[in-house]
Recover the amino acids of this structure.
């Protein structure tokens, strides 16, 4: 018996030593430990491609299952970035919206099968999505309770009652911890009893609702990725089994799990597929005419490129002294030009330039800072409004104004990519500035 116990102890120590060694080789900490458990090694990360999944949030608000939320979720474990792209549920999928029907809205495609809506999303975005997850709204609600609540800033007061659905929403604006029941109220909110809803600066109507959904998913993910919740993994898996339908297998996703533990939620981008609202159409009834969202293909292509293209590293054939000299010359030129732009543009000249500001940073403070900086220089800021969240600040030349104005603005902001003749925004301004999350 002593020999058996001794041998068992030796085996146990060997196992602990092996796991410790593999954990260290896999990066150490919780990530290294989980990597060892799922069979990852030092080469696994390099072989992992970004994973993209179509998320369909299904509810029973109107008595039958409808696709209430449509998103594309992407996670890249190599550079630890992720994104959520919302697709408006009223997106038109037919050929002539003037004679369109409700069955041609993208959310109606779910009744014809998940493959149909997956195919349509790929067609709209130009992506090649293969995986989907159909999530009953109850999944997120129960997950919130398992996590013992999620801290979230409710954007507006929400007061709505619908006796037919047994729905009573009573949420006050401000930062608070939401339990599952309150999370359900937040996610189902559309308008208040008095007809008011999300304000224009936040994103009115369905745009505001999608923004709230994305923000709450991000807040929930931030809470779920905390190390303390590793002990709740069994409860989380039970929720997934009961409320989620997917074509993803454990083998498809297990390799990604260890790296997701270290994901910084601040690296998550969110956006909505760009389009315009059209209607009322010739179809529908007098009391219930149809309204659709028609996707702008040009803007969509640009957004998809921004969200999913890998950053390109510039290379040069110059080396040694020539490279150093070139760098020094560029720095010298940049410094001289910067000074000239500041000194040579008068406020009177600047006042002739009309500027539009689109806030893609989700920060009113940043918007105010940019607006005041431009006004101090003399520029005429004709409008400022929210837009889809974006990582990079962009300065768009709409009417071929002189480069000196663009460069002065870039200097003052301290950041920004300069482009010309963009079709993203209105053309009744000279310059459009899209504030990104990189603006400080």
């Amino acid at each position: 018996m002593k020999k058996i116990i001794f041998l068992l102890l030796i085996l146990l120590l060997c196992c602990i030593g092996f796991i410790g060694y593999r954990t260290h080789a896999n990066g150490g900490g919780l990530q290294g430990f989980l990597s060892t458990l799922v069979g990852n090694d030092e080469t696994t990360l390099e072989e992992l491609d970004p994973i993209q999944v179509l998320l369909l949030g299904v509810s029973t608000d109107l008595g039958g299952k409808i696709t209430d939320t449509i998103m594309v979720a992407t996670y890249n474990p190599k550079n630890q970035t992720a994104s959520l792209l919302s697709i408006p549920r009223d997106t038109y999928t037919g050929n002539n919206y003037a004679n369109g029907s409700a069955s041609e809205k993208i959310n109606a495609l779910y009744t014809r099968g998940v493959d149909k809506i997956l195919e349509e999303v790929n067609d709209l975005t130009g992506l090649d999505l293969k995986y989907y997850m159909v999530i009953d709204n109850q999944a997120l609600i129960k997950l919130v309770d398992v996590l013992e609540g999620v801290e979230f800033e409710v954007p507006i007061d929400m007061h709505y009652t619908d006796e037919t659905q047994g729905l009573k929403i009573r949420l006050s604006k401000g930062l608070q911890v939401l339990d599952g029941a309150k999370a359900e109220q937040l996610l189902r909110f559309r308008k208040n009893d008095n007809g008011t809803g999300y304000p224009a600066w936040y994103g009115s109507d369905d745009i505001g609702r999608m923004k709230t959904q994305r923000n709450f998913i991000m807040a929930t993910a931030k809470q779920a990725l905390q190390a303390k919740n590793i002990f709740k993994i069994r409860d989380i898996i039970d929720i997934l089994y009961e409320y989620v339908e997917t074509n993803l297998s454990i083998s498809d996703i297990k390799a990604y799990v260890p790296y997701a533990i270290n994901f910084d939620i601040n690296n998550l981008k969110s956006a909505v597929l760009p389009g315009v609202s059209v209607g009322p159409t010739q179809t529908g009834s007098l009391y219930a005419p149809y309204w659709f969202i028609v996707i702008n293909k040009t803007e969509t292509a640009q957004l998809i490129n921004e969200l999913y293209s890998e950053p390109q590293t510039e290379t040069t054939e110059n080396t040694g002294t020539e490279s150093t000299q070139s760098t020094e010359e560029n720095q010298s030129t940049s410094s001289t030009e910067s000074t000239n732009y500041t000194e040579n543009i008068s406020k009177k000249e600047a006042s002739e330039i009309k500027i539009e500001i689109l806030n893609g940073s989700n920060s009113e403070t940043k918007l105010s800072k940019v607006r005041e900086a431009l006004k101090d220089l003399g520029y005429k800021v004709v409008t400022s409004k929210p837009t889809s969240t974006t990582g990079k600040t962009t300065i768009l030349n709409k009417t071929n104004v002189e480069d000196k104005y663009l460069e002065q603005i870039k200097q003052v902001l301290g950041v920004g990519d300069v482009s010309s003749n963009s079709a993203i925004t209105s053309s009744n301004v000279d310059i459009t500035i899209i504030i990104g999350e990189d603006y400080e």
Residues 70 and 88 are 7 Å apart (CA to CA). The two ends are 68 Å apart (CA to CA).
